Amino acid sequence: MPIPCLSWLDQPNRRFPSSFIGRARTSLSFFGGGAEQSKKKAKKMIVLKWLFLTIAPCDAAEPWQLGSQDAATPMMQGIIDLHHDIFFFLILIFVFVSRILVRALWHFHYSKKKIPQRIVHGTTIEILWTIFPSIIPMFIAIPSFALLYSMDEVVVDPAMTIKAIGHQWYRTYEYSDYNSSDEQSLTFDSYTIPEDDLELGQSRLLEVDNRVVLPAKTHLRIIVTPADVPHSWAVPSSGVKCDAVPGRLNQISILVQREGVYYGQCSEICGTNHAFTPIVVEAVPRKDYGSRVSNQLIPGEA
Amino acid sequence: MAEAQSEQTLSLAEQYSLKEKEEKVDIPLPSEVKEVENAENAAPAEVVVKNDEPPVEADADQSSDNPPAEESPAVEDSETGPAAENDSGAAAEEESSGAGEEENSGDQESTDEQPEIKLETAPVDFRFPTTNQTRHCFTRYIEYHRCTQAKGEGAPECEKFAKYYRSLCPSEWVEKWNEQRENGTFPGPL
């Protein structure tokens, strides 16, 4: 039974406004003069809808989302923190540069100063504006590279390995740690749920029939590879975007810090149904994971 | 300490490489390492056979460790106890900072919940530190088959290699390679 990621919570917000809009539209005919007003109302509802959606507690992309999704792994937390740190200085620099620019335009406008100043060079300021801009990227690069390489590095032994194999156009997941022979014991395909079969609360083009079930708070190794053309395995909340290259196994190691359902999409053009190859990761508590897997293993459903 | 150190300084490649002769190949699990430490006298022979260059380091450690013991032979007995404890403590620290940590925590977890499912998989291999794990899978596959060739089919020492390559390789690849081995067209050094 798939848990619809709390999206039943935001569902009313998503549904009611539209029905409200519908009702508002139909009421137009009764009040001839109220057309403007109800249109405004409808617009307000749409704005409200977006507002609520942005608050919706769902680890999936939201309409008109500007920031990152909530972090589920230390990696993503690091990325978000780096982004915010850099943005602080970025805004400072932006304000400073804009101020200089606007001041120059304002004070040296031809209507104010008919005779242009003829400054050809100023050694001090030239040295300054050469040195500083070249130091700033360096200071951005240091934490950036530190983060980048720490993401690559696998320090602890992972507790389990999952193979995410991209196909045109679905994903196969192999849990092979429990195999006692070359026969696969726990493998399943994960297809997107077609629009017509969606249940209330499921996200369009994001929901799949078989989710990847992972234990939370556990070091995981995910081996990403495709069987045909390049794909990509990307889950924004976990800070993962790993290209799947034919003939190559790419490894990512993640530690999901909280239980939840995380949504991602294929991020490498892989053909016609590229847009219909979502990824859904369900992180469950570690002890539940054991029972889940043993339930799947014992009936031998593959 | 010397033993523990030299065990640690063995590179993984050395640990995993198959010997010409029939010899113990398997990696010392942390628990085994501890046993070795406890039975300090029993270990050296085996360790010395295994090492090529690490003994230099181990000797240095020993020489730095020994002098106080030689100065006061009478206290030696009383000192060996705490010294051994320190050693095992240091070794444990090394393990926890290194690869052993996950296994330890895994053990704890398993005692907590005692499931049929044990969370364990191929460990980090420092021969393959990059994102690209293609070679890792391939090497594990080869290691398994070389191991079975050396020790006979179904040798218990080889099982872990089988587990590793099954964890790492897509089943499609394994099937292909198995087929190639049957046809004698497998490209790897078997």
Automatic annotation (TrEMBL), chain A:
UniProt catalytic activity: 4 Fe(II)-[cytochrome c] + O2 + 8 H(+)(in) = 4 Fe(III)-[cytochrome c] + 2 H2O + 4 H(+)(out)
InterPro entries: CcO_II, CcO_II-like_C, CcO_II_C, Cupredoxin, Cyt_c_oxidase_su2, Cyt_c_oxidase_su2_TM_dom, Cyt_c_oxidase_su2_TM_sf
Segments forming domain Cytochrome oxidase subunit II copper A binding: 157-295
Residues of the Cytochrome oxidase subunit II transmembrane region profile domain: 60-155
Principal location listed in the UniProt entry: membrane
Keywords per UniProt: Copper, Electron transport, Membrane, Metal-binding, Mitochondrion, Mitochondrion inner membrane, Respiratory chain, Translocase, Transmembrane, Transmembrane helix, Transport
Entry membrane topology: Multi-pass membrane protein
Functional summary from the UniProt entry: Component of the cytochrome c oxidase, the last enzyme in the mitochondrial electron transport chain which drives oxidative phosphorylation. The respiratory chain contains 3 multisubunit complexes succinate dehydrogenase (complex II, CII), ubiquinol-cytochrome c oxidoreductase (cytochrome b-c1 complex, complex III, CIII) and cytochrome c oxidase (complex IV, CIV), that cooperate to transfer electrons derived from NADH and succinate to molecular oxygen, creating an electrochemical gradient over the inner membrane that drives transmembrane transport and the ATP synthase.
Entry protein name: Cytochrome c oxidase subunit 2
Source organism of the structure: Cucumis melo (Muskmelon)
From TrEMBL, chain B:
Feature: compositional bias, Acidic residues: 92-114
PANTHER family: CYTOCHROME C OXIDASE SUBUNIT (PTHR46281:SF31), CYTOCHROME C OXIDASE SUBUNIT 6B (PTHR46281)
Location of this chain's protein in the cell: Mitochondrion
Region (Disordered): 1-126
GO (cellular component) term, any one: respiratory chain complex IV
Keyword Disulfide bond recorded: yes
InterPro entries: COX6B-like (IPR048280), CX6/COA6-like_sf (IPR036549), Cyt_c_oxidase_su6B (IPR003213)
Extent of Low complexity compositional bias: 39-48
Keywords, in A-Z order: Disulfide bond, Mitochondrion
Cytoplasm in keyword set: no
Bias (Polar residues) ranges: 1-14
Domain of life: Eukaryota
One protein family per Pfam: COX6B
Primary localization: mitochondrion
TM region(s), chain numbering: none
Annotated protein name in UniProt: Cytochrome c oxidase subunit 6b-1-like
Biased composition (Basic and acidic residues): 17-37
